[in-house]
Amino acid sequence: MNQSSQQHPSDSLRADAPEVELVASLPEAARPLFSQAMLNLLGELGRRYRPRVDALLEQREQRQQRFNAGESPDFDPSTASLREDDWTVAPIPADLRDRRVEITGPVDRKMIINALNSGARVFMADFEDSSTPTWGNMVDGQVNLFDAVRRTISLTQADGKHYELKQDPAVLIVRPRGWHLDEKHVLVDGRPIAGGIFDAAVYLFNNAQALLQQGSGPYLYLPKLEHWREAELWESVLTDIEKALQIEPGTIKVTVLIETLPAVFQMDEILHALKSRIVGLNCGRWDYIFSYIKCFQKHSDKVLPDRAQVTMKVPFLSAYSQLLIKTCHRRGAFAMGGMAAQIPIKGDEAANEAALQKVREDKEREAGNGHDGTWVAHPGLIPVAMEIFDRHLDGPNQLAVKREDVQVSADELVAPCTGSITEAGLRGNLNVAIRYMASWLDGQGCVPINHLMEDAATAEIARAQVWQWIRHPAGRLDDGRDIDLPLVRGWQAEELERIREDVGDQVFSAGQFQAAADLITEVTENDEFIPFLTLPGYDRLD
Ligand SMILES: CC(=O)SCCNC(=O)CCNC(=O)[C@H](O)C(C)(C)COP(=O)(O)OP(=O)(O)OC[C@H]1O[C@@H](n2cnc3c(N)ncnc32)[C@H](O)[C@@H]1OP(=O)(O)O
Ligand SMILES: O=CC(=O)O
Ligand SMILES: [Mg+2]
């Protein structure tokens, strides 16, 4: 269906205008958001940036081949002067100067209302790690944000519980998809538009002016960058959107997640590429661990132990977070902490206290090291994190804490991690990967499993570890058994059976557990490391 020509008079378009085709129908509530002018913007951006996105994705593959041949990510000598020179990022808007606690969550209606009302300083509305990118989720998310920005968002559940916004909601930041994911339901000149361009452009087109009129602004979190040229691409896209919306250059503010191993060597370059609009960097630890496994997929000395042992205290992660703080504060940008996986546990006081204690320790470390704020997964964790940041911070942030004592070498950023691989760790990875992907294929991108928050990034670690352990001699259980395909196949079948017993036959048959297990088999048995689990996952959606 060519939505643009059906719904909007196409005679307003130039003869050589890009052809924009929606290959799925729009829900009634979304139609006002997809005006002809908005579709024209998608068309212009889709046509202009498709080649650059493709080229940058191709460069990712080439870099991976070099890592596979033995190279290790490093600081680039050709940008040394940029790292050495003194410069700072543009001033940070008033409503982004206090980011002690940020809550994150998918873009469903209840989540958005609860998060904005939660008492956190910021809400990161997530089209990425915590959202399954079904067309329905992506488009409903845009409708929900449109209503949230105008403060008209409300919801009455079937049980009568009513939700609406209170006074002083959290500041809104939106996270679009990463460069690897397309939005296959929107074709420009016959090619899918990049998912991130779609998410950002639809949100900004519909909300930038309204946000500015309220004294806030259009703010984004940018995920999964692997090179400063990808930051430069965002800079071009956002500059074009500002021109189209006739708003001042630099109005769209961004915070960038440093959540890939190559990016930690380019933090200055990324800050510089987005100098007029960047307000900070964030330690996206889960994707970072995944990226470490992916980059070193062929390096036998870099095999990681059980996921539970890879905490922020291990040398390579500690070095990354401290270097991020030092780099950001030198440039006048915020250094945001990340997400502890623990969430509140209902009905078991002792287990709940133990989970909260883990979160407390994580936030004490972050605040003590100089982070300006942190992420929480659940409203119940806001007071826990807020108390710690309130106690550590003299003002609204720690920009004045320069951390010039931090000296981090390239070797420290890639240091191998000691520890053990256990049967529980391997079985846990298989179990979590299946359960999570079953939920993801069902449209829910963030779930509690064994009292931990699981999302696309944590599931990537689970399946990547299984792949890595099968293929390296160091992938050996602590009792001496070798981890090979027959062992993994057997345990995966047993874990799938265990899931069936846990959820019951009816839920199992109605759910996507078998499809998820097949997907996990596909990626673990393939000798080529599939760069993102969500790519074959996306092929199975809609
Ligand atoms: C690696 C990364 O990218 S981290 C960023 C991505 N991850 C996230 O954003 C995590 C988001 N968090 C969540 O989705 C959820 O908290 C989960 C899945 C982890 C746990 O969900 P549940 O077990 O269903 O939570 P629980 O039942 O305790 O929820 C209690 C209430 O808190 C609300 N709530 C829970 N988490 C959030 C949140 N992040 N934002 C807003 N409200 C929330 C629920 O909607 C529920 O509201 P209600 O009482 O009005 O019905
Ligand atoms: O996006 C955050 C992460 O930890 O990954
Ligand atoms: Mg991430």
Automatic annotation (TrEMBL):
- GO cellular component assignments: cytoplasm
Which reaction(s) does the protein catalyse, per the Swiss-Prot or TrEMBL entry? glyoxylate + acetyl-CoA + H2O = (S)-malate + CoA + H(+)
The active site lies at R175, D455
Keyword Acyltransferase part of the UniProt annotation: yes
One of the entry's Gene Ontology molecular-function terms is: malate synthase activity
Report the superkingdom from the record.
Bacteria
* Pfam families, alphabetized: MS_C (PF20659), MS_N (PF20656), MS_TIM-barrel (PF01274)
InterPro entries xref list: Malate_synth_C_sf (IPR044856), Malate_synth_sf (IPR011076), Malate_synthA (IPR006252), Malate_synthase_TIM (IPR001465), MS_C (IPR048355), MS_N (IPR048356), MS_N_TIM-barrel_dom (IPR046363)
Show where the Malate synthase C-terminal domain sits.
421-541
Q: Where is the Malate synthase N-terminal domain?
A: 22-80
Q: Which UniProt keywords apply?
A: Acyltransferase, Glyoxylate bypass, Transferase, Tricarboxylic acid cycle
Query: Is this entry keyworded Transport?
Result: no
UniProt EC number: 2.3.3.9
> What region holds the Malate synthase TIM barrel domain?
171-415
Q: Give the residue range of the signal peptide.
A: none
Q: Name one GO biological process term.
A: glyoxylate cycle
Q: Which NCBIfam families match?
A: malate_syn_A
| Family membership | Belongs to the malate synthase family.
PANTHER family attached to this UniProt entry: MALATE SYNTHASE, MALATE SYNTHASE 1-RELATED
Q: What is this protein called?
A: malate synthase
**Source organism of this protein record:** Wenzhouxiangella limi
